Fold this protein.
Amino acid sequence: MAHPIRRSSAVRAGAAGAVVLLAAAVLPATPAVSSPAATADGARPAQHVIMFDFDGFDPRFLTGRYAGLAELPNIRALIGEGAFGVADGSYSSYSNSSRTTTATGAYPAVHRNTGYYYNQETDRGVSQERHIEPGVETIAHSLKRQDRTAAYLQWYAVQNYGATYGDPAALYTQPGGDCETRADQAIALLRGEPVNSGGTMVDPAAIPDLITVYCDDVDGVLHDGGFSDPDLPAALARVDAQIGRVREAAREAGVLDRTAFVVTADHGAREWTVPLLPEVLDRLSATGLKVQVVASSGGVPDPASEIVVVPAPRTADITLRGRADTPENARRIAGIIRGIPGIAAVRDQQDLRRLKASDKLGDLVVEPVEPYHLSTLADGAPRASHGALPEAQVPMVLSGAGIRRGVPLRNVGLVDVAATISALLGVRPPANSQGHVMRGAVERS
Ligand SMILES: [Zn+2]
């Protein structure tokens, strides 16, 4: 299986240096101002970037096992004219944490948005959270600071982290509905029409430099019914169709040849039907230590519990406490769980550091083989979910202005999106961004 973080630190340091050089070469000495001249002299490969972030859009909808579910003509057209690859997500592959990686260009070890864990400070189980470590910029902070305009259409990772309701320069909106409703706002912005932002109609003075469109149609169907859900083909076709609608609106607005498109996701999905949590708990209890399952919905463990387990379908987070909290116990318990048939991996502290995961995760993170699951729900109905390493894989499509045609994207990840969009718009990446520009695909200015 592909590893989500495969670059060595030496390679990354080199790439970071290259990013700085590029930024130095393209940044004007005075504060950046959007102007057609910036495109003409090559300082800015794209005048606009439009990104579609499709929650749960597994790369296998485009390549491999599930490619026959829907034709996806609009995504395939972008791929045909641009660059495509299967990119690394981030670990663990929960939506908020992964999308925060996209928004900041930093790994969870740095932004610390964490999913499905036991928070020792608040003494509660956590499902997902809205958190970005102080001082870590999102692309919304960074673009605003560098005088670029943007609208984030339900792209919640930046809400109150650089983008807010009613701010025409860094606009956040939450239109709700399905992907079509979100795309309607992108089309309105391309037409120069106002959009509803938290109850206020906001009319940006010009088409924003960056527009991000978030859609969760596909993720919702997958969670409910897995890859065989009869509603899945229509959800896939619906999100794909919005790309076509927005592209047409860009054409009508006269900006298509100056617009770059990015299509990606936060994670893929894996199916689950067979419960494995009871077996894991039996083996843990056999150690003589006091084991407790704590609900991710804010569950509070008994103070005497020594092994706290936060269960989810695709991961179980394990925290050792009190006399149980020793390296020897962590090794022993990892070994016990690895011996259970149906377990794919038990990630220890060394693994989690290597994956650049958040330090808020527990001592161990357990992952089952598909279709086993670690949820307390055990009705056997087919569903799909994410959180583990195999589903930390996403499609990455770059196409349009400033993007080379026919370039295979290799060794790229969500962590590189913010740096790449920044380079397309001729600005520096967010502070603390660790990713690099997907250089082979972006035309040198
Ligand atoms: Zn998601």
Remarks:
- Confidence is low (pLDDT under 50) at residues 1-42.
- The longest helix spans residues 232-252.
- The CA atoms of residues 81 and 405 lie 5 Å apart.
